[in-house]
Amino acid sequence: MSISTVIKSIQDIMRKDVGVDGDAQRISQLGWMLFLKIFDDQEKALELMQDDYRPVVPKTLRWRSWAADPEGITGEELLEFVNNTLFKKLKELPVAGNGRAMIVREVFEDGYNYMKSGTLMRQVINKINEIDFNKSEDRHLFGDIYEQILKDLQSAGNAGEYYTPRAVTQFMVDMVDPQLGEKVFDPACGTGGFLTGTIEHVRSRYVKKPSDEKKLQQSIFGVEKKPMPHLLCVTNMLLHDIEVPSNIRHDNTLSRPLRDYGPRDRVDVVLTNPPFGGMEEDGIEMNFPATYRTKETADLFLVLIMHLLKDGGRAGIVLPDGTLFGEGVKTRIKEKLLEECNLHTIVRLPNGVFNPYTGIKTNLLFFTKGEKTKHIWYYEHPYPEGEKSYSKTKPLRIEEFEPEKAWWKKRKENQFAWKVSIDQIKVANYNLDIKNPNAPEAAHRDPEELLAEYKELLSELSEKREALRDELKRSLEGNKV
């Protein structure tokens, strides 16, 4: 039976369980089970390769002990074991400086077993056991299926925010070109698309000997604040042969005051798609200098990234149109960006790249820290010929970026590319939403585009209302004094 058939069978079994409601819960449930199976397969391999290796998961909790036997515990006994022994003990697993133990505890800290039927759970477990993660053929095939599982997140309500289309991550990694030994960081890593893209990129180009591989293993860093994508990201790292993915932390990068990030936290490369359109919880903005305080998540991440990059460090970041044309705090952030970094390229993506999560038009910004911007090159990515949008069945493909790649090192203006000087941008009060002067104007605007812009404006108004309300509140408090 093919691995894709196995995964489909698992999802069909889960649909029969009354406790699992919707795609997000199904993926979360499948996530912790796959994690334990992959982790245990990796532990078995390490035991064979390293004479002194000791598994970090206690014997009775290892997948091989309670799940591997197809005739093993089932029904209420299995449910009781998972809910009251497995989850309880793994949440409290002693760490004592052991990175692999820390990974397991972090994964299960906020984990949850949704399944209510131990019989159906046994059926799922037996299906998972049909995949051998120590067989290179199975691992390779499952890697493609896992990518599809992550892609399914796009249909899982808000969970879609964790998935960036593979074509986008691969293009951005290729253009930023992380080198062996460079510290690569994604401060909002979701399910790990940019990090796995980096691992594949560096491994295929620069890893030549075991010491190179060790260097790569120590150079991948990520933070994700929500439990499900963190679990999926760690599993993704294990699938990509990262032995101890302890540098993938379950945390909120924005919750630490900016001034607390010192030289040791500086990185060579940032590749990320921070959540946009959302607002951070009260108080998070106080971790940033007053000039740049806002509750808009993407703006705060942009300030953080500028701070974390070393001089000469490079970044590729996905941002919505609203950041480009926004005013107020957004203007001050953009001024800082252009003063402290060389924003050399903006690739403008059309509508639908992130459907169905959002219809808002997005942009890929590429910049280098430590030199001022003198001009910005824009490249407007067109739809494939004959297409007017992207969809789940017709997504953006990596082959579509070939014209950008060909243009990248020998830049000339054409119908999709144009250059804007810093003086023009300053005159426009740092509005980076520069329309393509080389494209014929469409007679009518796309209704979806107009709606997306309208939503962006509403978000802007909401932010300004909040700022006015806070100012009024401070004024009233001052009068009381």
Protein model, in words:
- The protein has 481 residues and is an alpha/beta fold.
- It has 2 domains: 148 residues, N6 adenine-specific DNA methyltransferase, N-terminal domain (Ferritin); 308 residues, Rossmann fold, CATH 3.40.50.
- Strands 3-2-1-4-5-7-6-8-9 form a 9-stranded mixed beta sheet.
- Helix 11 links the parallel strand 2 and strand 3.
- Helix 1 packs antiparallel against helix 6, helix 5 packs antiparallel against helix 11 and helix 8 crosses helix 9.
What is the element layout, followed by pairings?
Layout: H1 3-15, H2 22-49, H3 63-66, H4 75-91, H5 99-109, H6 118-128, H7 136-152, H8 166-176, E1 184-186, H9 193-205, H10 210-217, E2 220-224, H11 227-239, E3 248-250, E4 267-272, H12 297-308, E5 309-320, H13 321-325, H14 329-340, E6 341-348, E7 362-369, E8 375-380, H15 402-408, E9 417-421, H16 422-427, H17 447-480
Parallel strand pairs: 1-2, 1-4, 2-3, 4-5, 6-8
Antiparallel strand pairs: 5-7, 6-7, 8-9
Helix pairs in contact: 1-6, 2-11, 4-6, 5-11, 8-9, 12-14
Give the distance, in angstroms, between the N- and C-terminal Cα atoms.
75 Å
Main-sheet strand order equals: 3-2-1-4-5-7-6-8-9
Tally of helical segments: 17
Q: What do the pLDDT scores average to?
A: 88
